[in-house]
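# nightly structure sweep
# worker-07 picked up a monomer target from the shared queue
# config: single-sequence mode, recycle default, output format = structure tokens
# input follows
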Amino acid sequence: MESTAQRTSRIASEDAGAHSAYAHAQDFFNGLATYSIEPTKIGNFYVFERTPHGQLCTSAKTMEEAQAQIESWKNTELKNGYRKS
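# output follows
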């Protein structure tokens, strides 16, 4: 069973995460996102979308997959559950 202190801490953490996701989405829709592709030690690639309030990261097996992921992120209408309007 969850204590009052644990519940309060969990709710605060969830609220902070939701605010961060919203701020990242707002930054994205305001054109503040940057993208990068970084090689891993095992020959794959990390793909990043960064804004002042957060980042997304995924992996790709090829450079083509990584570039396709970036294009997908750039063209999305829904970011972290939020729409531009």
